[in-house]
Design brief:
268 residues, alpha/beta, Rossmann fold, 2 domains, two-stranded antiparallel ribbon, binds zinc ion
């Protein structure tokens, strides 16, 4: 049977219509709804004609929807980027000026999800503030979670470093868990490290960054890095060790153009 045109066989989609709250919601596709006999009520069983209690045809899709919903909650994506998908990377500014990077941006997203293979290379998105780096990184994360049903995480580096510092403090719940935290982030299938390199500070911070990057590198995990810093500065980090890893793991993309944050304003 040909895959459903609406969901492409993924059996779920994001419906951007806002009914309650500030955003739309994940829904199972109509190709599943049509077969459903349980009325969409957990635990998704129904009574058939011979009075046998059967698993509804919607069972696996609805369970997966719940699971993906949980992944989105745990991904720690900033509110304004939480439900952004590829069509949200607009190709013109609100005043009609073209956004040069838009076509490439959509193409990058497409190489991640319009294929059966897990992505092998991540992205290093660099350029001045407001060119859509964080937006694009979150779109990649969201599309991957939605289409591949595997978890992702948006990492704010300052928060991360603070969390690691706490592991040295006996009063903290995380006392002694330094390596476990690094390891957990190393294993997440899809990771965005936002605003990379702002923490030029201490040797310790650089070492921690290197550990994280190197763990992801060793396990070949998909990683997107965004940075406002000139590449020449990234090259300085840890005598170039971090930068050379990043180049092996990531496609280098320069983001340029107008202040992209305007694109997130609702259209009038
Ligand atoms: Zn469908
Ligand atoms: Zn059902």
């Amino acid at each position: 049977m040909a895959p459903c045109l609406k969901c492409g066989g993924g059996e779920m989609y994001y419906d951007p219509r806002v009914e309650a709250g500030h955003h739309g919601q994940l829904r199972v596709c109509s190709c599943i709804e049509e077969q459903c006999r349980c009325g969409g009520r957990p635990p998704y069983y129904f009574w058939d004609e011979e009075a046998r209690n059967q698993r509804c045809p919607c069972w696996s899709a609805r369970r997966r929807l719940t699971e993906v919903g949980r992944m989105f909650k745990e991904a720690d994506i900033p509110e304004r980027y939480r439900w952004k998908f590829r069509e949200d990377f607009h190709s013109t500014t609100p005043d009609g000026a073209p956004v040069r990077i838009a076509q490439d941006a959509r193409l990058y997203v497409s190489t991640l999800i319009d294929t059966d293979k897990e992505p092998e290379r991540g992205f290093l998105l660099h350029g001045r503030p407001g060119t859509g780096k964080t937006l694009l990184s979150c779109i990649m994360l969201n599309e991957l979670m939605l289409n591949r049903f595997r978890p992702g995480r948006f990492l704010n580096l300052s928060k991360y470093l603070q969390q690691l510092r706490d592991t040295y403090s006996e009063d903290s719940d995380n006392y002694g868990r330094t390596w476990r935290i690094i390891e957990a982030l190393g294993k997440i299938p899809y990771l965005v490290i936002d605003d990379f390199g702002v923490q030029r500070g201490t040797e310790w911070a650089k070492e921690v960054l290197y550990d994280l990057v190197d763990t992801r590198y060793a396990d070949k995990r998909f990683t997107v890095i965004t940075t406002n810093q000139p590449l020449s500065e990234l090259q300085q980090l840890s005598q170039g060790r971090i930068y050379s890893r990043l180049l092996e793991m990531c496609k280098l993309v320069e983001m340029e153009g107008e202040d992209f944050r305007q694109h997130l304003q609702p259209k009038v």
